[in-house]
Amino acid sequence: QVQLVESGGGLVQAGASLTLSCAASGRTFSTYTMGWFRQAPGRERECLAAYSWSGCVTYSTDYADSVKGRFTISRDNAKNTVYLHMNSLKPEDTAVYYCAAKILQIATPNPTDYNYWGQGTQVTVSS
Questions:
Q1: Quick check: 48 and 63 in contact, CB under 8 A?
Q2: How does pLDDT run across 74-84, given as a tens digit for each residue?
Q3: How many Cβ atoms from other residues are within 10 Å of residue 112's Cβ?
Q4: CA 123, 102, 110, 72: dihedral to nearest 10 degrees?
Q5: What is the separation of C-alpha 58 from the centre of its chain, rounded to a whole number of angstroms?
Q6: Residue 104, exposed/middle/buried by CB under 10 A (0-12, 13-18, 19+)?
């Protein structure tokens, strides 16, 4: 069983930066493909980026324009942690942000492809 715990969310003003962290349990984090998703009120959960176990980084083309150049995913296998670095935040970035994991699979944007989910962390950006 893989457990994921997100942290780093909060209330910020437009233009601010935040880094979200997702700590994973288990001794085989290097085999986890990790994804960052967000869900705004009334909207479906949508993929922002994924970092595969093999080192491939994928940014969802659905968000290519809205987050391009502002959001970056990274991971530290020694710390069992994946990060989402968010810069120049906008009010439309307000959502609950989730990390998710699947084991030894390619990075994909479909939430249903992921087996394990964190509880989410709220990010609120005021104008």
A1: yes
A2: 999 999 999 99
A3: 7
A4: 50
A5: 11
A6: exposed
